[in-house]
Amino acid sequence: MEIFNTLNELINNLLVLLGNWGALLGCALILVESIIPILPLSVFITLNFMTFGNFFGFIISWICTIIGCMFSYYLFKKGLKDKTINKLNKNEAFKKVLKAVKNLNFYQLVIIIAIPFTPAFLVNIAAGMSRIKTKKFFAALVIGKLSLVYFWGYIGVSLLESIKDPIILLRIFALLGVVYIISYLVNKKLKLK
Predict the structure, then answer these.
(1) Of 47, 81, 115, 131, which has the maximum CB count within 10 A?
(2) Crossing angle (nearest 10°) for helices 81-88 and 120-129
């Protein structure tokens, strides 16, 4: 309990110290996190929620996350694809991941993107290298990142309350269910198999 209070105080002091620059830094770090996976996305989203409030923090984090994922996707689809494939083709585990991502239908891709603990950088790289259509990947990101950003922002800002109140966790699971239904309907409408 003391650790959470100390962490909350540290974050608040950092936000006051950095002001608007802290928010811009949070947005830039969200973009970079899509390429460098060791950075904690949840912390950056939480900073945006705390700086801009729940609504604008959500919108800004959602847009920055989508832009970062699309940049990573294009980087491996166009720029680094041939060089990287030659090196990674020797790795059996990566070949399995690449094949699994390539065989995902649209709503499966949305669910994988929506799950908060899925390594986004790996999905971005595999999607770019496996020739998933840009329209399909972008639509999956737009829908799937809704619940991911909501999860990290809401949990990050109210971690103690979410642990004590199971209703909050039920809402998050309900949101994942809604995301699945929306992805299914979008898949049928756009025929993104």
Answers:
(1) 47
(2) 110
